[in-house]
Amino acid sequence: MKKRSIFLVLLLSFGLLVACSGEKTTSNTQEKKEITIGATSGPYSDMVNKAIKPILEKKGYKVKVVEFSDYIQPNLALANGDLDANLFQHKIYMETFAKEHNLDLSEVIIVPTAPMGIYSKKFKSLDEVKEGSQIAIPNDPTNEARAFLILQDAGFIKLDPSANPLTVSEKDIKENVKNLQFKPIEAGQLPRAVESVDLAAVPGNYALAAKMNLLDALVLEKMPDQYRNRVVVNTKDLNKPFVKDIKEAVESEEFEKVIDEQFKGFGKPEWMLKRKQ
To answer: pTM for the full model?
Structure first.
């Protein structure tokens, strides 16, 4: 009788352990339905709120959008778990930041991005640009390279063909057709510089922050995808269902319709252009 009682106790205990284990497994495999996405304030937080969040909510998600005013905190917040994804950076920045801070980040999908443009209050077209005109350009290497590529595409300069297009600088200029005078200044000051110089190469995010119309540019850059912003997540989350759903939201026709209607002038990534061909 005593042995039988001990057996029943052991059997019940085993049943409870199996039940608890089952509950834990179910909890761990349950799909995540509340997600937090970080973005810099301005066009990219607007993009999340207007073009991504509504689609995810239709999929049953509760989406919180957190706005940032700098380019440091969004990745740190992602890495420590305060965010599930962020949208604000291009490939070169993501890889450099991840390496410097020992983070493991991965891109999910590239999104339409505000391009750099050449703006002027003195000239109405590139044909009017005069010999020796002064042009303000960004003083940081990444944006400076973009400015020189625009000027080359416009026929104003010729760069050393052996130079890396992602890191070209003034020293790589082999021919300056109009003898342009370059004035490097901090990127955030470029919108104001439009008033004081002949030309200014203004990154799209700063142009929009200054309430400039992208379509007022004399020319907009043919932006390589490396410079377009992307949705980024922690690499460990890359294959999770919520990440797949974010990607599907950006790939949807509904997303592109919002871009066409409310983000005019934004350059579309290669994957989006190819599906129209």
So the answer is: 0.80
